[in-house]
């Protein structure tokens, strides 16, 4: 019995849904439906105009709600670029031979009665062949350019034909559902943060807008389609496995003879050996998650570096290490797998890699999906351009504070602490900050989980002035037997509120220098008086000459950071100030640096 042949054009049938995965290959899953009438017996269905970026192994065709219909065979045929180029080159060779023969024939003509008529005919034919050669050269050049482009970056076209053999027990009207994966579709998130001021102060209500920037060059126009953005990697669907367990081996005890552990802080002394940490991000770094980051450890045998960004009296720090070496703990034993690998600090749990002999698929926040257009049908052409679509608009609450790090810069930043109260995680992406509808800054948002808090700098406040001065003087020896040099350092930070309103939360961050056991240098904190005895996180209220109240009040505490690299043991502290409109405050810190001096003694002659 002869099979019934049915030919369908994909462009005549809308795409039902598209799911774009968050992968490096730009993978998307396409679902199409085709209503067809089947004859009893074997039916051959040809679907033309499918993307050339299709993954042949991803084809799935089934007939829902039709138990008497089954798909017995399915395949796809894509005309590849190299094959198209080879065909055009072969055709050009034939056309070039034809042109050469016409030229040779014209040269052999003898002048006679029909000479000019034959010559006109040959000239017309040569002109026609020349135009064909020109067209072929242009087409071959375009294909050559495409071949130079990496496969994952090429634009697709509708050159794929899918052929399916379907067997029906009787004549019926069915709907074929075709699903396949294509490359050439990518998406990334970006955000807009809108804040406003009320009576001279930032309002705690902020608007957070999420957008998706989608680019697709699959060769298929997505018309009236439901588009879903998935945070999972499509490769995780075809490569998951349970990692194998490897044998552990205990390595010999090792220790770094040049490393020195810090001494803990006594009630009145600061004597740890640790690294100094910058408190503000370098130029161009993200303004989110503002926290201390360790400076590199100096090589063995080198002197600890002195910070180049001190207050005016840089010479006062000749004997004080502001950028000390990092702690190198003693290693007693290491349990490692065979072969022994180099050990690194573990990443966050949600980014922890799976160590095995094979590739480990990414399953990062695999359940997170976004509906483009809030579930409505969307049109997205295959033009390779970035199309920005709205995902969601959130109303969040923010706590505002003013932050300054005078040791690095006297600039005062307006910073917001915002809690993600939405139902989904916030994925990394660029964010634009607007204050009263005016653009302020652009930075990057890191991954933020539900109910987690992130920090965002909203701009610079020029009406709060901060100045810093530092001075030092030596102290005489208590007796003639003292073999130490003592220097007293005083740091004074002056604040001026130029606003017409009071400022309740002004944070000034600073750091004490650290003692160095190798250099026999100790640091003793004198002011603020009760800060040395305070525990990490405890607020120490300071008495002021003016009235103490909700404003013109000062507290000081050891800093708390998320990674634990700063705080009491590392000399990082912060002032928390409330200052009335048009008034000044002076913050004073004092410490003593004691440096041991080697004294040689000899016997009298």
TrEMBL record:
Start-end of Polar residues biased regions: 304-313
DUF4140 domain mapped to chain residues: 18-108
Annotated region described as Disordered, given as residue ranges: 294-313
DUF4139 domain sequence ranges: 176-593
Domain of life: Eukaryota
Alphabetical list of InterPro entries matching this protein: CHP02231 (IPR011935), DUF4139 (IPR037291), DUF4140 (IPR025554)
Name under which the protein is recorded: DUF4139 domain-containing protein
């Amino acid at each position: 019995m002869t099979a019934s042949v049915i030919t369908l054009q994909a462009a005549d049938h809308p795409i039902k849904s598209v799911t774009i995965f968050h992968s490096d290959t730009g993978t998307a899953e396409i679902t199409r439906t085709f209503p067809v009438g089947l004859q009893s017996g074997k039916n051959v269905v040809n679907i033309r105009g499918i993307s050339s970026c299709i993954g042949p192994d991803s084809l799935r065709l089934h007939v829902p709600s039709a138990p008497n219909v089954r798909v017995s065979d399915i395949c796809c045929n894509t005309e590849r670029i190299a094959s198209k180029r080879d065909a055009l080159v072969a055709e050009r060779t034939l056309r070039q031979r034809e042109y050469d023969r016409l030229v040779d024939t014209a040269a052999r003509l003898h002048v006679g009665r029909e000479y000019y008529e034959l010559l006109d005919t040959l000239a017309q034919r040569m002109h026609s062949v020349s135009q064909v050669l020109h067209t072929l050269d242009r087409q071959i050049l375009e294909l050559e350019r495409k071949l130079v482009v990496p496969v994952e970056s090429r634009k697709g076209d509708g050159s794929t034909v899918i052929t399916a053999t379907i067997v029906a027990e009787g004549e019926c009207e069915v709907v074929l559902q075709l699903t396949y994966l294509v490359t050439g579709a990518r998406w990334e998130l970006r955000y807009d943060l809108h804040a406003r001021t009320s009576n001279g102060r930032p309002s705690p209500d902020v608007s957070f807008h999420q957008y998706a920037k989608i680019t697709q060059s699959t060769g298929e126009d997505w018309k009236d389609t439901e588009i879903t953005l998935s945070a999972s990697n499509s490769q995780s669907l075809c490569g998951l496995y349970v990692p194998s367990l490897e044998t552990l081996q205990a390595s010999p005890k090792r220790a770094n003879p040049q490393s020195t552990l810090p001494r803990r802080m006594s009630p009145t002394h600061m004597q740890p050996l640790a690294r100094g940490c910058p408190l503000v991000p370098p130029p161009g770094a993200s303004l989110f998650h503002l926290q201390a980051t360790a400076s590199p450890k100096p090589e063995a045998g080198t002197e600890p570096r002195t910070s180049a960004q001190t207050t005016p009296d840089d010479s006062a720090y000749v004997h004080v290490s502001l950028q000390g070496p990092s702690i190198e703990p003693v290693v007693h034993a290491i349990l490692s797998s065979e072969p022994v690998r180099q050990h690194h600090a573990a990443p966050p749990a949600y980014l922890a890699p799976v160590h095995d002999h094979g590739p480990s698929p990414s399953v990062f926040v695999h359940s997170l999906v976004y509906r483009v257009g809030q579930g409505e049908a969307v049109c997205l052409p295959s033009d390779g351009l970035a199309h920005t679509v709205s995902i969601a608009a959130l109303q969040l609450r923010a706590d505002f504070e003013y932050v300054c790090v005078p040791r690095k810069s006297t600039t005062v930043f307006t910073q917001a602490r915002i809690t993600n109260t939405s139902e989904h995680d916030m994925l990394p992406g660029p964010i634009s900050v607007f204050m009263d509808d005016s653009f302020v800054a652009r930075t990057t948002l890191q991954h933020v989980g539900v109910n987690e808090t992130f920090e965002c700098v909203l701009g610079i406040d020029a009406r709060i002035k901060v100045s810093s001065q530092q001075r030092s003087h030596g102290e005489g020896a208590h007796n003639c037997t003292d073999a130490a040099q003592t220097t007293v350092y005083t740091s004074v930070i002056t604040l001026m509120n130029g606003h017409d309103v009071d400022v309740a939360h002004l944070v000034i961050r600073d750091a004490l220098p650290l003692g160095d056991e190798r250099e026999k240098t100790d640091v003793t904190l004198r002011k603020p008086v009760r800060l040395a005895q305070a525990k990490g996180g405890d607020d120490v209220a300071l008495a002021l000459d003016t009235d103490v109240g909700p404003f013109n009040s000062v507290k000081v505490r050891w800093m708390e950071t998320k990674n634990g690299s700063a705080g009491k043991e590392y000399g990082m502290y912060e002032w928390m100030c409330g200052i009335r409109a048009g008034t000044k405050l002076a913050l004073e810190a004092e410490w003593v640096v004691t440096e041991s001096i080697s004294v040689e003694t000899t016997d009298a002659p």
